[in-house]
Known about the structure:
Layout (H helix, E strand, L loop, with lengths): L2 H23 L8 E2 L2 E2 L3 H19 L16 H27 L9 H19 L6 H18 L6 H22 L9
Antiparallel strand pairs: 1-2
Amino acid sequence: MNKPRLIGGIICLAIAAFLTVLNVVLPADNLMFMIDDTNMPFLPPIVLGILGVVLLVTAVTAAPKEAKPDKLAFTPDPEKTALNKRLETMAWGFFLIMLGGYMFVPHTVVAKGLWPIAVGLIMLGLNLARYLNRIKMSGFTTFLGIVSVIGGLLQLAGMQSLESAVWLIVLGGYLVLKPWFNKRQIFGKAEMG
């Protein structure tokens, strides 16, 4: 039995049940989940319920992993680990400066899509610096950076309704290209070099 999947499934089902109770008890205007201009508060409980059931089923039916013989013990490169830590710290610094600017600058002064573009460029810049220094990139922040930049560009173009479709297209593209990324070992833990 896969304990993380079991726990995740139980948590998803508990949140789905809680949201379902809120949907039944609260008036329709008090619980909001907007897709375009339509309020669909029933959608998150359905998605979380399905995800919870899938996690529970896969937790029970997952075959136990066989013990594999230990490969050569991995020793992280201390120089790359220290460099990655400095790069991450700088990226967090840029992000916090940008977040402070977002809170400080009135929303009428800066176009709506520029803030997500700035966040995406910070994430992509961090991963570019990792790549140039031969440190494994983070697939998660690369994905979020791409989606953030594209989402910001869509906001600048006035097409906010397409953002969820772009999320799905970028995620699908990542899944299609994942074997190629794995073969070249581009993404992974930074300490693994």
